[in-house]
Amino acid sequence: DGGITQSPKYLFRKEGQNVTLSCEQNLNHDAMYWYRQDPGQGLRLIYYSQIVNDFQKGDIAEGYSVSREKKESFPLTVTSAQKNPTAFYLCASSTPGQGNQETQYFGPGTRLLVL
Amino acid sequence: AQTVTQSQPEMSVQEAETVTLSCTYDTSENNYYLFWYKQPPSRQMILVIRQEAYKQQNATENRFSVNFQKAAKSFSLKISDSQLGDTAMYFCAFIKYNFNKFYFGSGTKLNVKP
Predict the structure, then answer these.
(1) What is the gyration radius of the CA atoms in chain B, in angstroms?
(2) What's the DSSP call for residue B59?
(3) A28-65 pLDDT, tens digit each
(4) At A68, is the pLDDT very low, low, confident or very high (cuts 50, 70, 90)?
(5) A8 CB contacts (<8 Å, ≥6 apart)?
(6) How do the pLDDT tens digits run along chain B, 114 residues long?
(7) Nearest-CB residue to A106 (from B45, B95, B105)
């Protein structure tokens, strides 16, 4: 079945440690996104990528990094520079500019906790 | 800049009744899309309904329908015959035509009571 997978479901980070969240899609979508969600709040855009080997900062990119080496994959690294990383992270994908493919489809999310 | 406002942080409705969630947005664009997403306790974001701004007809998906008022920049969601499984956070979202960035509202928490 086509869809978006995120792993792990739960991730624990120690102080000063970099951690990487995985996001894979088999929907053949061009664009992929990373959002952060804090308790009781909406989604904030961290990074997005329209095509392979290209990505742009969103509204809260500081302390995060991404890569887009393959169309199917868009991993997010939470670096030690991110001082408050505890949150729920959602990955999404879409194919903008193609009629009803404007819709973003989401993965199940990763919950990151700081030890 | 585009903004999306959901003015109802939390709402309750009795099972089988109808409830309407409000959303307003601000944009100078003429072509865009509007969405309602549902986030149940599992936290999976699920598309509920989608509306193209150029279409005057309001979108409908089974028990879910929208009231799209383009001039007023309003996009409310009506849930008919509410079910316990409708309990979730509901997010309104906006995207310009042929653009990548979504703008999300802060969400409305809906509780369906038995």
Answers:
(1) 14
(2) P
(3) 998 999 999 998 788 999 999 988 999 999 999 999 99
(4) very high
(5) A22, A110
(6) 679 999 999 999 999 999 999 999 999 888 899 999 999 999 999 999 999 998 889 999 999 999 999 999 999 999 999 999 999 999 999 988 767 788 999 999 999 999
(7) B45
Tokens for B89, please give them.
């956070």
A37 DSSP β-pair partners:
A43, A88
Chain-chain contact of B100 with A48 (C-beta, under 8 angstroms): yes
- CA–CA dist A30, B88 (Å, integer): 29
Nearest Cβ partner for A106 among B44, B50, B100: B44
CB–CB of B45 and A92 under 8 A? yes
Contact A96, A90 (CB under 8 A): no
Q: Phi-psi category of B9—alpha, beta or left, where left has phi over 0 and alpha has psi -120 to 50?
A: alpha
CB pairs under 8 A between A and B: 52
Task: Please report which confidence band the pLDDT of residue A101 belongs to, taking 50, 70 and 90 as the band edges.
Answer: low
Tokens 């306790």 -> residue = B41
CA distance B72 to chain A (A): 23
User: What is the C-alpha separation between A110 and B11, in angstroms, rounded?
Assistant: 27
- A34 by Cβ neighbours in 10 Å (0-12 / 13-18 / 19+) ranks as buried
**Phi-psi label, residue A99: left if phi above 0, alpha if psi -120 to 50, beta otherwise:** left
